[in-house]
Write a structure and sequence with these properties.
Keywords: DNA-binding. By secondary structure, the chain is mainly α. It contains 15 helices and 3 strands. The chain is rod-shaped, with a radius of gyration of 32 Å.
Length: 305
């Protein structure tokens, strides 16, 4: 049987393109033991070691640690299992980087402070249960002192609590960051408390208010279908009809105080809320959403007078 050609460490370096220093390190770590030593005690390798070096280099470039590579070479761990372990680590790292990028993008939308970045970073790392807690806390603040139906509130929390996957997309992360900022805004909380107080007030004719809302949405849908813009004269008529109907249902005059109340209940962030939930869940908005947005825009323009 012919004797296998012996390669010095320098020749092995030329064959593989890996520096001698690195090969010595691999050898010292037990990843590349020499097949024998020369009379001068130089390390000698053979063709099989060339293949071994290529495997070590491939695994190292994939980010596999030396301890795991040692197990693979010693047949204590299969190559498939080693790669699965590495893939899991890479995917976790990618998810972490996505969260960092989302926090940085959100911070750079304004003039960030250290507290802003710390808060945004914390928001991106919340679990689904912790996100649900944020939503629940918001509804608790809105419902404080308001006779809101508990079952209705629990349904709203369940419908809007984001259940993001383990590896959310950048769009999902950014939607969650924006939603968390909206929910923490004291002015939004205050405006939603005004809306809740009207919605659940026993002094308001709820049937009449619901009728005004239904008629307003139906008129908005019909106008939208014809291409009517929310800043048109026709839209103004629809908006005024709705506002007057809401005032009548509340037993109030259409005066400055009621118009201010309407401005607060028509906070555009209430609609944005559901847009963001749609991005996070991947579920489309209901067909009535665009009708509501059109009507909200028409009302906002009417109240600007």
């Amino acid at each position: 049987m012919p004797k296998r050609e012996a390669l010095t460490i320098g020749e092995l370096a030329r064959r593989t393109g890996i520096p001698v220093k690195t090969l010595r390190f691999y050898s010292d770590e037990g990843l590349l033991p020499p097949v024998r030593r020369s009379r001068a005690n130089y390390r000698l390798y053979d063709e099989e070691q060339v293949v071994r070096v290529e495997l070590v280099r491939t695994l190292r470039e994939a980010g596999v640690d030396l301890a795991t590579i040692r197990k693979v070479l010693a047949r204590n761990l299969s190559l498939e299992d080693a790669l699965r372990l590495r893939l899991t680590a890479v995917e976790a790292h990618v998810a972490s980087l996505s969260r960092i990028a989302a926090a940085l993008r959100a911070a750079l939308r304004g003039e960030p402070s250290e507290n802003d970045l710390r808060r945004l970073w914390t928001v991106t790392r919340l679990s689904n249960e912790e996100r649900k807690t944020v939503i629940s806390r918001f509804y608790d603040q809105v419902a404080d002192g308001v006779p809101m139906d508990g079952e209705w509130m629990r349904g709203m929390i369940e419908a809007s609590a984001p259940k993001l996957p383990d590896d959310p997309t950048p769009a999902q992360l950014e939607a969650w960051i924006e939603l968390a900022e909206i929910l923490a805004d004291p002015t939004f909380i205050a405006n939603m408390r005004v809306m809740a107080a009207v919605t659940w007030s026993k002094e308001v004719d709820q049937a009449a208010l619901l009728r005004a809302q239904s008629e307003g949405i139906a008129a908005a849908r019909e106008a939208r279908a014809r291409g009517v813009a929310p800043d048109s004269a026709e839209a103004r008529v629809i908006a005024e009809r709705f506002v007057r109907g809401a005032a009548k249902a509340s037993g109030k005059d259409l005066d400055d105080a009621f118009e201010e109340q309407m401005r607060r209940t028509q906070d555009p962030r209430a609609l944005r809320y559901w847009e963001l939930v749609s991005v996070m869940t991947g579920e489309p908005l209901s067909p009535a959403y665009e009708d509501g947005r059109w009507l909200g825009s028409a009302i906002a323009r009417f109240l600007e007078r």
